[in-house]
Amino acid sequence: MPTLIFLYFAAIIVVTAALVVALRNPIYSALSLLVMFFHVAGLYVTLHAEFLAAIQIIVYAGAILVLYLFVVMLLNVKRDDRYNRQGPVALFLGAVLLTEVVLLTASHGLTVASPGPAADGERVAGNTEAIGEVLYSTYLFPFEMASLILLAAMIGAVILSKKDIMESKSS
Asked: Fewer Cβ close by (within 10 Å): the C or N end of the chain?
């Protein structure tokens, strides 16, 4: 049964990811992306990573998708027919990727590893605690650097937008 649930989520994720790229209307593409985000969260739930599933929905399906839609609406993307030549290349690369997936599945089979039971008296850490422990011990420096890079990007965006506002007022 867990294999069937995984195959359902994986199939929907693959189909909607392909639709994100294949659909010409950016709004339909964003809706496909939303469906994909929810199914990735479903995969996290099947792996007993409920915290990651919640973060997936809040951050990606909430914030990132809204930001994507905002940019699409702001840019007013027009249709462009010069990308029609990419179809054969995309089909070839998709066939190569599908062949790799089939060969890997056939050689290793579909097995689902489940964690063993904890020994008596042994405290099992939850997902949130384990993520926090690794994030703030092993990966503290990269976490802080990512924070600084995002802060610099935010300050740069504010400065660039103020410069555009000042130029439009002076003209």
From this structure: C
* DSSP secondary structure code for residue 25 in this structure: S
**Helix, coil or strand: residue 139:** coil
Are 91 and 165 part of one and the same domain? Answer: no
Residues 83-123 pLDDT 10s: 566 778 878 888 888 888 888 878 776 665 555 555 555 66
Assess whether 97 and 154 both reside in one domain.
no
What is the residue range of 34's domain?
2-113
pLDDT digits (tens, 9 = 90+) for 30-70: 889 999 999 999 999 998 888 888 888 888 888 888 888 77
Tokens of 66: 């809204």
Nearest-angstrom CA–CA distance, 41 and 59: 11
CA–CA gap between residue 161 and residue 155 (Å, rounded): 10
Q: Closest by alpha carbon to 33, among 51, 47, 13?
A: 13
Whole-number Å distance between alpha carbons of 48 and 29: 29
Q: From CA 123, how far away is CA 119, in angstroms rounded? A: 9
| Domain harbouring 46, CATH code | 1.20.120.1200
Whether residue 138 is predicted with pLDDT greater than 80 in this model: the reply is: yes
